[in-house]
# Entry
Amino acid sequence: MANIIDGKKVAEEVKKEVAQEVKKLKEETGIVPGLAAVLVGNNPASQIYVRNKRRACEEVHIYSEEYRLPEETPESELLSLIERLNRDNKIHGILVQLPLPEHINETRILRAVSPLKDIDGFHPENVGLLVEGNPRFIPCTPHGIIRLLEHYGIEIQGKEAVVVGRSNIVGKPAAILLLHRHATVTVCHSRTRELKEVTRRADILVAAIGRERFIKEDMVKENVVVIDVGINRLPDGKLVGDVDFENVSRKASYITPVPGGVGPMTIAMLLWNTLQSAKNSIKAENYTR
Ligand code: NDP
# Structure
């Protein structure tokens, strides 16, 4: 039976660290890290995410602002808000909750966020820095994955890592981070042939697909480390991951549960990135003086 990777516990540790550093930063410089979350429309899952992020900020004493805009908000209005937040000295991190309504161009919006406040790490400048190996902000979910692996002392170097999913938010950056830590990385997607043959090679398997219990027992080898990013809601309201936890956990050496695995880490790393951004802003100010 696999060891369960306790994302809730590790996230609490990260939050504690952040809270201590926030306090220290305030004492030493008077600066309080600030996060602005922007939500457009009524997507119920997005509303829960934004609420959870606000609560997490409160826990670690990060200042937070929340902007809830109606579904029909014109793109120009959203752009003006982002420009205002880009200039606001109280705000060090800007988070635009995805998905955005159809009539708003997501790429344009994400590029409008100042790369210095892009704590999700989605701006092309930050993507470039990440690929180069000099990240300014590591996207929160992949960052959380690496932190979990490190916490449990799971070796990455030289291991076969297979990432299923190639989104810009999870799959691609997770693959890059594993590559920088010297894993041999394979990225799979909906057009991968013989997926099972590929996933069975994995020492570390990251599932970021968005399909309930998609990874079955016969798709993994004995002692695999399984990181399940998926969050899928069943008709009865229950949350399950992309991995058939019950059966895969019999073969795995380590596995993340859903809920309580990667999810809490994503929020913790968002707080971490906001703190880093506030620290970076001080360095930048000293430099320009
Ligand atoms: P996307 O829908 O953007 O990407 C899904 C990826 O899975 C795509 O690359 C797609 O391939 C691939 N895929 C879909 N079907 C198959 C298949 N049959 N075989 C192989 N690959 C397949 O999702 P995200 O990356 O944004 O999110 C993935 C999951 O993680 C979701 O459940 C989401 O809710 C969850 N999530 C959880 C977070 C957390 O904090 N725990 C944070 C972010 C996301 P292709 O590119 O070819 O279409």
